[in-house]
Amino acid sequence: MPGKRRHQKEQTRMRIIAAVIKVYTEQGFSAPTTAIAGEAGISHGSIFVHFPSPSLNHLSRQQFIKCITAL
Fold first, then answer.
1. Rounded to whole angstroms, how far apart are CA atoms 12 and 38?
2. What gap in Å lies between CA 16 and CA 9, rounded to an integer?
3. Of 22, 64, 52, 27, which Cα lies nearest the Cα of 40?
4. DSSP character for 3?
5. pLDDT range class, residue 53, cuts 50, 70, 90
6. Span 2-70: which CATH code?
7. Residue 11, burial from CB neighbour count under 10 angstroms (0-12, 13-18, 19+)
8. Among 30, 17, 29, which residue's Cα sits nearest to residue 67?
9. What is the pLDDT of residues 14-42, one digit of tens each?
10. How far apart are CA 56 and CA 41, in angstroms?
11. Contact by Cβ (8 Å): 23, 67
């Protein structure tokens, strides 16, 4: 079971990162985390389980920039 749970957590993290990229592209860096949660299909509080508030902002911007520069 621990392997399955770990896989699910990683899948959720990847959905959050994908949602951050999409929401930031459409709404900019000031988009609310509720928009990110909605796009990822998770509850608002779940975002902060996977990314504490300051690290979400830093990571999401960092991921966004990485993805854009890779294009």
1. 13
2. 11
3. 22
4. H
5. low
6. 1.10.357.10
7. exposed
8. 17
9. 898 889 889 988 998 888 889 999 999 99
10. 17
11. no
